[in-house]
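Agenda item 2: S-adenosylmethionine complex prediction
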Amino acid sequence: MKNQNRLLWEKGDFTEIAKWMRRSGEEIVASLGIQSRLRVLDLGCGDGTTAVPLAQAGAEVLGIDIAENLVAAGNKRATEASLFRLKFQEGDACDLRGIEDRSFDLTISIFGAMFAPKPFAVASEMVRVTKPGGRIVMGNWIPNDPTSFVSQLLRISAAFTPPPPEGFISPMTWGMEANVVEYFTKAGVSKERISMIKDTYEFVALDKNPGSLIESLGRFYGPTMNAFEAAEKNGKVEELRDQLIELANAQNRNADVGVSIPATFLRVTIDL
Ligand SMILES: C[S@@+](CC[C@H](N)C(=O)[O-])C[C@H]1O[C@@H](n2cnc3c(N)ncnc32)[C@H](O)[C@@H]1O
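Presented output:
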């Protein structure tokens, strides 16, 4: 049987969306206080929005992603930037077999592992591969958050897409504090070691307009591509496009000179 999780992310070309996300990726890395010699795992790393600046900061980085095309794009970026301590490989956040226990000082996953279908397994694997005394950092979208462009994008997209199969656990559960605590305590982490704050990501392109972000999402971002395909069948493409453009325009803070759209997220830190 085909892995639907993998198909979703290989469907489009997330590198085209990641271009809008580079600045915030660099800012997250800058906030982590990376020193060289640190071994870092970036889970659901895409083409390296955080993995590349992590390696540039001196860490030895392994990026793991379920999508073959994004792993190839990440390795190309590493080679082009002569980052020889940065490697990307295919893998599933639900099952990191082949990765030894206690291998990493830092395991990071920015809007990555949240999309894996088995959250308890994901939490357990992240804890297993991180060294005692090390850290896990996650960025997770918050469901229905009115201040988050992505939460609203996913909410609108879901309203146009057929319901998921029974038993499907929404990735957005990772954006709710009670769920995060449940996933990690089940993986053996005590509550005091889990801290959560709201942080903000920014989608930025000063030479573009909000409509071009929506166009890119419709062409390259799996969840929005699925919404447009379903809308096409129901004659609702215009309705979907209008709602998304209205959202992007309403949230754009930089209407005069391009696009700068904020997106609130839950930043989770586990001190092991
Ligand atoms: C929204 S993108 C974020 C990518 C990257 N972290 C960034 O900030 O640009 C989600 C990523 O998670 C990956 N992903 C989804 N499910 C996964 C899984 N089960 N295991 C590993 N990666 C997964 C996707 O292939 C995709 O690259």
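Discussion summary: The domain at 4-271 is CATH 3.40.50.150 (Rossmann fold).
Owner for follow-up: CH.
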